Amino acid sequence: NGRPQISASFSNEMLDESLSGERAPEQQGGSTVSITVVGASGDLAKKKIFPALFALFYEGCLPEHFAVFGYARSKMSDEELRTMISRTLTCRIDKRENCGDKMEHFLQRCFYQSGQYNSEEEFAELDRKLKEKEAGRVPNRLFYLSIPPNIFVDVVRSASRTASSSGGWTRFIVEKPFGRDSESSGELTRSLKKHLAEEQIFRIDHYLGKELVENLSVLRFSNLVFEPLWSRNYIRNVQLIFSEDFGTDGRGGYFDNYGIIRDIMQNHLLQILALFAMETPVSLDAEDIRNEKVKVLRSMRQLKLEDVVVGQYKGHVKGGKSYPGYADDPTVPKGSITPTFAAAALFIDNARWDGVPFLMKAGKALHTRRAEIRVQFRSVPGNLYRRNIGSSDLDQATNELVLRVQPDEAIYLKINNKVPGLGMRLDRSNLNLLYSERYPREIPDAYERLLLDAIAGERRLFIRSDELDAAWAIFTPVLRQLEDKRVAPELYPYGSRGPVGAHYLAANYNVRWG
Ligand code: NDP
Ligand code: BG6
């Protein structure tokens, strides 16, 4: 694929190649890329986007000529933007080497334009400033919409009319949420497409930029041992687990309008599921991969109400410290029944996966932070060693493959193994690939990978509109039923393992959560 390696320098040729199908550069002096972070004063911009841009610059992955612009309504000078950005930059990659200098160089390439999100005049002013920095080079422009979704269309309309590149490419990275259901998502897509071509829209799901999620295809398609087992013939169930050990932490206002199913399951976990379950793509080309993802999503059954359990965390006192409940968040409306936890059983009605439960579990304010894919294999038929297996439950002694997406990235396979000694006793051991031991260098943040891809025009890790439609089709009916019937979430204490209902749901399908 065309993505530059993280350690390689980003050459102008890469940038020009990435124009694929768009206009080739003619001007002298090569190309330049300007990255405008719309909503620059916000949480995501400060926490993730500016630090990721710096990390790319530090690693020599940004093109030689680039500029970073912040755009938001807040009034700020260039200097104030730089001060704001510098507070969150760290030299995490290599603490020894010229980090301070590089930071200074990076900050000198950051500029700010204040404006309303629907103001063509103010985007025209941004255009004027961008042109100054572009200095006659082929201007490529990337807009990162790090703003609430209700203003996406305003920005796209104004920016596409008055701040599009002439001669280079113009791309927009759009952050989730992409609507609340099939209807609103379709409406958003139609509105964006009034101003942009699909190739210009990069819908981000940052889980696709996580190292272990990207590795899923490598594991499946470049090792002989896994792919032949990857079907209903050998796999009993697949579990996709997301848990956080903190609550909505001031994002309750946003969260209450969406809930955990929309916040995590319909996008992050479903994307992992699609990569896990898709057929072998024709090639690594973005369209080939996305075609396969769409196929598998379209083979999925709509989620049923009886296959969902919802929960909400309540306040809890532990070790003398009190932890607030979701409903205690002042930004959450009184009496909210928005789920902060959900478990669901999903099915793919195709030849490969017929009858295999794909169980998802996602929750906030649980006892631990982790994201994992767990694959439980069937029992060994006529197992010769059934008497030697310590556990009385043979079901517990099946193989299990775990991909730990975070924290402490790892891939391990649980196997039955002879306990050394003169007797014949078996126990469960792990074949373990612990990333921190095997690959001690720090893993880049998902946003770094995704920004780099968007600059290079690599769409593989971004969501195509038909994928989005297929994803919403699975969840929209149940979301509507949960809301129409006002299904009360099961309350669980902050810091606990979540509602017990999740265990009953899994038990319906003979599954135990890993
Ligand atoms: P913020 O709420 O911090 O908003 C970003 C900026 O948008 C603000 O600084 C503000 O800038 C402007 N803004 C906020 N509310 C409004 C409004 N009602 N009308 C007009 N402008 C407004 O958002 P985040 O940075 O948290 O998130 C940005 C996007 O990324 C959202 O779509 C969010 O859902 C998504 N996201 C966020 C994550 C996170 O961890 N924060 C994680 C994943 C996705 P100003 O007032 O200066 O114009
Ligand atoms: C975001 C959700 O998409 O992902 C947040 O909106 C969640 O609620 C976050 O906390 C988790 O991302 P990560 O990368 O920290 O696991």
UniProtKB/TrEMBL annotation:
It is an enzyme of class 1 (oxidoreductase). Gene3D superfamilies: Dihydrodipicolinate Reductase, domain 2, NAD(P)-binding Rossmann-like Domain. Its EC number is 1.1.1.49. GO terms for molecular function: glucose-6-phosphate dehydrogenase activity; NADP binding. Residues 218-513 form the Glucose-6-phosphate dehydrogenase C-terminal domain. Keywords: Carbohydrate metabolism, Glucose metabolism, NADP, Oxidoreductase. Residues 37-215 form the Glucose-6-phosphate dehydrogenase NAD-binding domain. Pathway: Carbohydrate degradation; pentose phosphate pathway; D-ribulose 5-phosphate from D-glucose 6-phosphate (oxidative stage): step 1/3. InterPro entries: G6P_DH, G6P_DH_AS, G6P_DH_C, G6P_DH_NAD-bd, NAD(P)-bd_dom_sf. One of its GO terms (cellular component) is chloroplast stroma. It comes from the Eukaryota. Pfam families: G6PD_C, G6PD_N. It catalyses: D-glucose 6-phosphate + NADP(+) = 6-phospho-D-glucono-1,5-lactone + NADPH + H(+). One of its GO terms (biological process) is pentose-phosphate shunt, oxidative branch. The keyword Oxidoreductase applies. SUPFAM superfamilies: Glyceraldehyde-3-phosphate dehydrogenase-like, C-terminal domain (SSF55347), NAD(P)-binding Rossmann-fold domains (SSF51735). Belongs to the glucose-6-phosphate dehydrogenase family. Catalyzes the rate-limiting step of the oxidative pentose-phosphate pathway, which represents a route for the dissimilation of carbohydrates besides glycolysis. This is Glucose-6-phosphate 1-dehydrogenase.
